[in-house]
């Protein structure tokens, strides 16, 4: 299920998101800073007044003169008023306590002249309010400046930050325009953009590889269709010629029987070619096998009997074990029919064909070098001229056949397709005994 992708500008989204975060964070930070500043200022003022009061008590115990005591506890921003028992007022004139004045009162407990005196310390809190107001204005100005600077930096910086995405976009458009081969080639693949760029390059490699394969498949398909049409043209032309000749001949014509045989033969040839093309189509689409227990030697013996009926002077023998495995008997028989027919054509009706059925142990592929699973092998070899090494793979291509034969050139490709559908393979090589001739090796797994 596809869903529409929201494609709003990434630059705008990131810029607005960053500014929104700043709009939220800066006021909160400013409030916290101002609250901490105000609380600390209050504590400092309380500590100052309390400290001055303790100092006054200490000086009184030292019997310091009242005037000297007032001078020593005087401090910036603190008004000191000392009223002796006699009513004499020393220091600043007394003021009334209010919201703008913080006062601390204490009675001195020692000293000949200061015992019982009333000490009043007054602090003007308007200085704190002014400092708090100054801090608030500083925070507002700096916050606004930070927003402006951040917005400008984001607009400029996003161009550089999103340059890799612009490069990806430009490359994608160039690929869409038909210019192949371009890659991003990230310098690092352990970052977000690096991983994205590497994945983008891998996707392009896969797409171009698939495109090349598709073009190659299309070219091969066109070539195959053209060759198949050419192969079908011969029997169809023969059928048409025979049919037209039959129509022109009278009922008592001497050539009528010969033309009827030609018509049947060419029809069979065309039908066989169509059946081969259908088999190839099934193989390409994914052949469905009907597996059941199969005895390979029985199938080989049936092929021997068929060949002896068709060519009594042909020497055919089956050697090997009576192996049983899971396979499609019709497809295996079709493979052996093709191989034995080719061997008969190569060796001649007086030649010799051998069919070897044997179990072959698997090569070392198991744990710690242990042998892999065994497989069955059927070798069909003849004493004909053999197949040149350069042609041993080419003969498995479709519509490739010898000029001396009248085959369609589809038998071996179909046989290999059936073998590989079973999980095995079909190859061509020299005879194992070194004698003249060809050997076709069919491999089928026991699994």
From TrEMBL:
Organism: Kribbella italica
Keywords linked to the UniProt accession: Coiled coil, Kinase, Membrane, Phosphoprotein, Transferase, Transmembrane, Transmembrane helix, Two-component regulatory system
Enzyme class: transferase
Catalytic activity: ATP + protein L-histidine = ADP + protein N-phospho-L-histidine
EC number: 2.7.13.3
Domain HAMP: 159-212
InterPro entries tied to this protein: HAMP_dom, HATPase_C_sf, HATPase_dom, His_kinase_dom, HisK_dim/P_dom, HisK_dim/P_sf, Sig_transdc_His_kin-like_C, TCS_sensor_his_kinase
Residues covered by the Histidine kinase domain: 227-447
Compartments it resides in: Cell membrane
SUPFAM superfamilies documented for this protein: ATPase domain of HSP90 chaperone/DNA topoisomerase II/histidine kinase (SSF55874), HAMP domain-like (SSF158472), Homodimeric domain of signal transducing histidine kinase (SSF47384)
PROSITE patterns in the cross-refs: HAMP, HIS_KIN
UniProt feature coiled coil, ranges: 200-227
Name of the protein this chain belongs to: histidine kinase
Sequence intervals crossing the membrane: 139-162
CDD domains xref list: HAMP, HATPase, HisKA
A GO term from the CC aspect: plasma membrane
């Amino acid at each position: 299920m596809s869903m529409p992708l929201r494609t709003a500008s990434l630059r705008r989204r990131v810029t607005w998101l960053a500014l929104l975060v700043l709009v939220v964070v800066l006021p909160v930070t400013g409030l916290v800073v101002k609250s901490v500043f105000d609380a600390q200022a209050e504590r400092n003022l309380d500590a100052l007044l309390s400290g001055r009061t303790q100092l006054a008590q200490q000086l009184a115990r030292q019997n310091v003169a009242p005037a000297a005591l007032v001078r020593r506890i005087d401090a910036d921003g603190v008004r000191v008023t000392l009223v002796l028992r006699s009513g004499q007022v020393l220091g600043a004139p007394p003021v009334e306590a209010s919201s703008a004045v913080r006062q601390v009162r204490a009675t001195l407990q020692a000293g000949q002249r200061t015992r019982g005196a009333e000490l009043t310390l007054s602090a003007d809190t308007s200085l704190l309010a002014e400092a708090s107001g100054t801090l608030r204005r500083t925070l507002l100005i700096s916050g606004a400046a930070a927003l402006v600077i951040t917005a400008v930096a984001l607009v400029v910086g996003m161009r550089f930050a999103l340059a890799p995405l612009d490069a990806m976009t430009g490359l994608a458009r160039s690929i869409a325009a038909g210019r192949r081969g371009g890659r991003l080639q990230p310098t690092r693949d352990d970052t977000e953009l690096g991983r994205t760029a590497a994945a983008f390059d891998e996707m392009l490699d896969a797409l171009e590889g698939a495109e090349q394969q598709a073009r190659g498949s299309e070219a091969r398909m066109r070539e195959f269709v053209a060759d198949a049409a050419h192969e079908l043209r011969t029997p169809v032309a023969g059928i048409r010629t025979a049919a037209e000749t039959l129509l022109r001949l009278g009922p008592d014509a001497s050539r009528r029987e010969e033309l009827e045989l030609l018509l049947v033969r060419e029809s069979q040839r065309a039908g066989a070619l169509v059946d081969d093309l259908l088999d190839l189509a099934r193989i390409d689409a994914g052949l469905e096998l009907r597996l059941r227990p199969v005895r390979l030697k029985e199938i080989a013996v049936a092929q021997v009997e068929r060949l002896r009926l068709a060519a009594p002077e042909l020497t055919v023998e089956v050697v090997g074990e009576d192996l049983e495995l899971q396979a499609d008997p019709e497809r295996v028989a079709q493979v052996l029919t093709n191989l034995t027919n080719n061997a008969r054509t190569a060796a001649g009706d007086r030649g010799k064909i051998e069919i070897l059925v044997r179990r072959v142990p698997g090569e070392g592929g198991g744990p710690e070098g242990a042998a892999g699973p065994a497989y069955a092998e059927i070798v069909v070899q003849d004493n004909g001229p053999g197949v040149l090494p350069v042609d041993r793979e080419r003969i498995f291509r479709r519509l490739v056949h010898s000029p001396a034969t009248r085959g369609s050139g589809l038998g071996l490709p179909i046989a290999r397709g059936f073998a590989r559908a079973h999980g095995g393979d079909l190859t061509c090589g020299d005879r194992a005994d070194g004698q003249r001739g060809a050997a076709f090796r069919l491999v089928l797994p026991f699994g």
